[in-house]
Every structure is written in structure tokens, then in C-alpha cells.
Design brief:
single chain, 239 residues, mainly alpha, globular, PqqC, Haem_Oase-like_multi-hlx, EC 1.3.3.11, Pyrroloquinoline-quinone synthase, oxidoreductase
Length: 239
């Protein structure tokens, strides 16, 4: 691999998203096209909670390694977005409003007792990746946010249109993400464009985004196998 210009690198990153982002997954299509039962939507929300709850922990591991106050201030906003600044605020709290609205017991959701094993493995692998890899790779792995506004728009409009058990209130998690995700991805993309200065670093950046796409894709693989193909593993949520 020869050294790419920043524009060429960005083009390859966007190509990875177009090819590998989980909006192309069959379970995603079923969810947004109204082809899932309420119980299957419950399983999705329950498992996705673990991802949402671990995002601020993931970001905290990176925050501790960032070398400047400027970078730490920028990344700290992500933790506040998800954890909130007081009880009952932030993205994790809003996700619990969704699981409440779907009729799931909040204590059960927060316990994570009903997770699919693959969900836990995938999310923990992502947290460990951000903790253990270079700062450049860790920041690049967040670039799935470049593509999230599209999936959020599809998710909200599709679920409101197709499911009578979904309301705008229960989907309130997603509204702030329409502005937060572009803000965060703009920063991360600028950082990657500036700091991936060698072919090795550029390969690392591309690999980090591929890894993150695989994390999200594998979570939907597990949901599809367990709750559409009806192979629920022992100990996992049974609708």
C-alpha cells in the first residue's frame, strides 16, 4: 500500500461504510420494514442496551490516554452525551425509556442477564480494542458515526410507520444523535486525516473501521440467528 492523500484515505473509509455498515444487514432491514414481532424488537433493544451502556466506558478508556487537554475536552463530551450530567439524562437513560416502552423490566435490562453471548463478546471486544490499540486506531474505530444519521432516519421513520407499540417518546434516544453523531464524526475524521501520515498508519485506520463494522454486523447476526431463525442459546432472553 502506497501513501494515500487525505482525500483518498477518506474515500476508502467511506467505501468501507458503504460496503460493511450494518444498515445492509437483513435483520436491520426486517426491523425497519416492520417484519419483526414485538418480541423480536424487544430482543434487539435488550441486546443493544449493552452496547449503549458500554460506549461511555469505552470512551473513558481512551480519554485516559489522550495526551492533551484539548483532545480530552473533546472526547469528554461523548461520555456526557451517553452518561448524562445528572441521573436520568443522557443516551443510556433514553435507551432505557425505549426498553421500558417495549414492556421490558428495567432491572432485568440493566442486569444484562438476558444478553446473547455473541452480544457480550462483540461489545467487550470493541471496548478492549479501544483500550489496547493505538490512539489513532481507537479514534478511527468511532468513524461508523459517519454513517449513523442515515440509519437513524431509517430506523425512526420505519419503526414509527410499522409498529403500533412504538412512539416518538420511546424513540427519543435517537433525536440528539442526529446532531451528536455528525459533530463527533467530523472531529474524528479530521483527526484521522491529519494523523494517519504513513502507509502503516493508514492501514491501521482502515482496519479499525472494518473491525468496528464487524462488531455491529456480528451483533445483528446473533439476533437474526437467535430470534428469527429461533436458535436462542441457554440463558438468553426468551420472549
Amino acid at each position: 500500500m502506497t501513501l494515500l492523500t487525505p482525500d483518498q484515505l477518506e474515500g476508502l473509509l467511506r467505501h468501507i461504510g458503504a460496503e460493511r455498515y450494518h444498515n445492509r444487514h437483513p435483520f436491520h432491514r426486517k426491523l425497519h420494514d416492520g417484519l419483526l414481532t414485538k418480541q423480536q424488537v424487544q430482543a434487539w433493544a435488550l441486546n443493544r442496551y449493552y452496547y449503549q451502556a458500554k460506549i461511555p466506558a469505552k470512551d473513558a478508556t481512551l480519554l485516559a490516554r489522550l495526551p492533551t487537554a484539548e483532545l480530552r475536552r473533546e472526547w469528554r463530551r461523548r461520555i456526557e452525551d451517553h452518561d448524562g450530567t445528572e441521573p436520568g439524562t443522557g443516551g443510556v437513560a433514553r435507551w432505557l425509556v425505549l426498553t421500558d416502552g417495549l414492556g421490558l423490566d428495567r432491572d432485568y435490562v440493566e442486569s444484562t442477564d438476558g444478553l446473547l453471548p455473541a452480544t457480550r463478546f462483540a461489545v467487550d471486544a470493541y471496548v478492549n480494542f479501544v483500550r489496547d490499540q493505538s490512539i489513532l486506531a481507537a479514534i478511527a474505530s468511532s468513524l461508523t458515526e459517519l454513517f449513523s444519521p442515515t440509519i437513524i432516519s431509517e430506523r425512526v421513520s420505519g419503526m414509527l410507520r410499522h409498529y403500533d407499540f412504538i412512539s416518538e417518546e420511546t424513540l427519543a434516544y435517537f433525536t440528539p444523535r442526529l446532531t451528536q453523531a455528525p459533530r463527533d464524526s467530523d472531529f474524528a475524521l479530521a483527526y484521522v486525516r491529519e494523523n494517519a501520515r504513513t502507509p502503516e498508519q493508514q492501514r491501521e485506520v482502515l482496519g479499525a473501521l472494518e473491525f468496528k463494522c464487524s462488531v455491529l454486523w456480528s451483533m445483528l447476526d446473533a439476533l437474526d440467528y437467535a430470534y428469527v431463525e429461533d436458535h436462542i442459546p441457554p440463558g438468553a432472553f426468551v420472549p
